Hints:
Layout (H helix, E strand, L loop, with lengths): L2 E2 L9 E2 L19 H32 L5 H7 L5 H4 L4 H6 L2 E5 L6 E5 L2 H27 L1 H33 L7 H25 L1 H8 L11 H22 L11 H12 L2 H12 L5 H13 L4 H22 L9 H23 L11 H32 L5 H30 L1 E5 L7 H9 L12 H9 L3 E6 L1 H29 L8 H8 L1
Helix pairs in contact: 1-6, 1-7, 1-9, 2-16, 5-6, 5-9, 7-13, 11-16, 11-19, 12-14, 12-16, 12-19, 13-15, 14-15, 14-19, 16-19
Amino acid sequence: MAEVQHDNSAEHVVLEKKDLSASDDAPESLGTMTKDDKRAFILLVVLYALQGIPVGLTFGTMPFLLKSHVGYGGLGFFMLSTYPYSIKLLWSPIVDSYFVSSWRIPCTKWELYLGRRKSWIVPVQIIVGLTFIALAKNIDALMERAETLISLITCVFFVLISLAATQDIAVDGWALTLLSKNSLGYASTAQTIGVNLGYFMSFTVFLALNSVEACNKYLRWTPKNTPILTLSGYLQMCGLAFICVTLWLLFYQKEAKESERMEIREAYSTIWQICQLRHVQLFLIVHMICKIGYQANDAVTGLKLVERGLGKEDLAFAVLVDFPFQLLFGYLTATWSRGDKALQPWMVAMVFKLLFAAMSMGVVAGMSADGSEPITTSYFLLILFSTILNSFASTVQFVGITAFHTQVADPVMGGTYMTLLNTISNLGGTWPRYFVLKMVDFFTVSMCRPPLDVDFSKIEKMLHMSNASLSLGECKSEAGLEHCSKIGGTCATIRDGYFATSTICIGLGVVTFVFFIVPICRRLQRIAPSEWHIVSHAQKKH
């Protein structure tokens, strides 16, 4: 299955990915594929694109939209909705094991033929589609009361991401039988194209069409006060797309019959045996701590750029420009992550990720704190340049770690092995985010100052004498900023918690990198691939 990497100024989302591209039997070009393989390839792209829609909304768009209503603590809570992609290993054996060959519609003679993968894909996608349609009718009310309903919003998107992760497990498994053996290597290509297509539709394209400024500047002859596409309208379109594709899939796409069922106990037992290997345990620890150093940069920098004056449409444009560079860098770095030093590019890229995290603090610090000063063209190019460089380092890391996973995974249990390693890798980038966003709020000190034409000194003196205090409201969230402005006050940030949080993260990242990650990774690279295999390890003990 896949990791999703996305740099939200950017958060690099990586949906863990099976390295199917390593197949020795893969053809040299898409043109050599058979007609059936081409149809299967297109189907996989469409299914993965559907998966990318809720992923793009949850990982990319919603944090930017919610920032207008909640503080960083609230955003940290919302990011809990991204966790299913980091824990899907818990139910992946169930998805692989249970299915129905057919289902008779109640009170009719109609029988729908499903299969091992459609048994999960069809109901999951129908539920996602209906959820999107229901959410479209209520999203405006939810967003208006986001500060008090953040738990409900988080639960809704947690369910959507759980369903998307389940669909991903089923589609990954179906790809192995949809494509012929000679074209199996293109399963990862379909996944890369599809997931990124859905992701960028939900993040980059939607943010641009949802921005009144971008629409008036680039897409309209006559300026208007409304965007071309609202969040409600987009959710409704997505819901209809899910349902239409699923109905076509149900009635027109056949699935090859598979009578063999995986033993769930055997799958979980295999996972446990893998985790008992000492070097695997060390590697999993590396995965859990390696992304702490640049977590504040990935999770907060994009939000801070928007907060300090960068338009959301400009940030979306930066990510859009970065997209082709990701594809190019992925191709170039593939040749750097081979042989017995597959982790070397990954470690070098981590150094640059830490440097870019420090660089991002400088970029944010160079912008006006209240966003009142316009962003110059040269400064925007600097932001674009730093985004591309950060993406490049993330791509090198992803390719390097995937190459190492492929190198050490036991071919006999490659799917389970790869899912374990990729899931823990994804979790390493997910679990710190909640705490990082909470820390930003914790370290931030801001206040709403009274109007300049009102003398509050006497009032404050009287309140002080009576052990009372005067509060004009918080200034951490966009709602607080708006309230302060309405009463004629001005918000002043005494201390921006982003800088303290990022400094702490970078410090922890440097310490763990120098004293733990580098020594352990150099040691792991010297271990023969056979030592990572359960059977070989057991035979050696006997």
